[in-house]
């Protein structure tokens, strides 16, 4: 008899995506909490068309919407990250290491925190600090709709038989369209959330919209 034998395991382990459903259910729970408690049982239509001066609890709604957007975006794009950087993978907390989703989530959260802080400082530095609250109130509506689209894309991506390589190209077109639409949404919204002077608007778009996004792309995919 040979001293060693080689066995080939023909059993294919199915991909377990339970973690995705748990995250999406958590996001839906956050929105139910926001609509019933924070927004005082407001319906979807009233929430989306409410005016700034008629709204209340704008800050909690903005925080919850940002959390849901960060979670769903990280769930969707984490599968396309080539690898977790070595200096990140070597970090261990209680024996655990960051996987692609964890790394992506931390990167997206830091991205939004830094951009939000810089945005606040930008409005304060140009003497237009009163517009900051109107800005994040209006941005909340945009990201609220976007987060629902991300939830739908996550369900399709993980629970339907799609070609993920081909879908990546569609995602690029989708997010490019969303980004361009967001710029026009900010520029021409009736709440006038951007500074009045055109060069401030140009400065905001270049330094706080385009540049941070390019840095996030480089961090995640290069």
In short:
The protein is mostly helical and 222 residues long. Helix content is 70%, strand content 0%. The longest helix is centred in the middle third of the chain and has 29 residues, at 131-159.
Provide structural commentary.
This protein is an all-alpha fold and 222 residues long. It has 8 helices and no strands. The protein has helices at residues 18-38, 44-49, 58-77, 86-89, 100-125, 131-159, 164-188, 198-221. It is globular and about 45 Å long. The N and C termini lie far apart (51 Å).
Mean pLDDT: 86
Helix content: 55-70%
Number of helices: 8
Q: What is the terminal separation in angstroms?
A: 51 Å
- Following the backbone from N to C, one meets helices and strands in this order, namely HHHHHHHH
């Amino acid at each position: 008899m040979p001293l060693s034998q080689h066995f080939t395991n023909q059993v294919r382990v199915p991909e377990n995506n339970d973690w995705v459903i748990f995250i999406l259910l958590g996001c839906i729970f956050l929105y139910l909490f926001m609509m019933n408690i924070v927004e005082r049982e407001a319906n979807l239509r009233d929430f989306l068309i409410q005016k700034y001066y008629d709204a209340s609890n704008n800050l909690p709604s903005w925080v919850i919407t940002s959390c849901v957007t960060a979670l769903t975006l990280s769930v969707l794009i984490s599968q396309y990250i080539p690898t977790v950087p070595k200096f990140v993978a070597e970090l261990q907390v209680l024996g655990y290491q960051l996987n692609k989703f964890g790394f992506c989530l931390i990167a997206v959260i830091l991205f939004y925190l830094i951009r939000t802080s810089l945005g606040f400082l930008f409005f304060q530095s140009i003497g237009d600090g009163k517009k900051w609250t109107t800005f994040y109130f209006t941005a909340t509506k945009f990201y609220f709709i976007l987060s629902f689209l991300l939830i739908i894309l996550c369900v399709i991506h993980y629970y339907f038989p799609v070609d993920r390589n081909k879908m990546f190209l569609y995602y690029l077109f989708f997010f490019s369209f969303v980004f361009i639409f967001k710029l026009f949404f900010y520029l021409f919204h009736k709440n006038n959330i951007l500074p009045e002077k055109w060069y401030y608007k140009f400065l905001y778009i270049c330094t706080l919209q385009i540049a941070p996004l390019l840095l996030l792309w480089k961090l995640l995919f290069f």
